[in-house]
Amino acid sequence: MNALLQLLAKSGLLMKDFDYHLLRAAMVVIFAWFGYDKWFQSEITALAPLITHGPLIFWTIPLLGIHGTAILLGTAEWTFGSLLLLGFWNKKLGVLGALGSIATFISTLTILPFVPDGWDAGAGGFPAMAMNAAFLLKDLVLLVVSVYLLREDVIRALGLPRER
């Protein structure tokens, strides 16, 4: 076990800010990909049942239609991803990206209790999730990553010492 630990220590895993940069890069990729998907009718049509049941975003489809909702969500995701990317160089822009990311994942997590057929009846219903609800649970981790990036960017933008 000690040999494994020493190997991991020499691998770059302990490099200063490795986790911070890795998480930021992952979030940029996620927002780029999610934003790209929203430009296709099939994606937004598949998401429409979730969106219409979301207490924070239900209004988008009646107000903007399917196509307008796709544009809004795709543009928001690309904007937040771009701000997170720019956060590598400008922490204040990173703060804006992290705030947008937090809003995104809070919004999607609020859908979870209201997902149509989201609770697996064959397994007794709540808390057994069906796949259409379980797929939203990933947003809990993405929300936590967003909060971490926000914290780090605020600390760095203000030049404060980092406490761990």
From TrEMBL:
InterPro entries from the UniProt entry: RclC, RclC-like
| Keyword terms | Membrane, Transmembrane, Transmembrane helix
Q: Where are the transmembrane segments?
A: 20-36, 56-86, 93-114, 126-150
Q: What Pfam family does this protein match (any one)?
A: DUF417
Is-annotated flag, keyword Transmembrane helix?
Answer: yes
- Can you say what this protein is called? DUF417 family protein
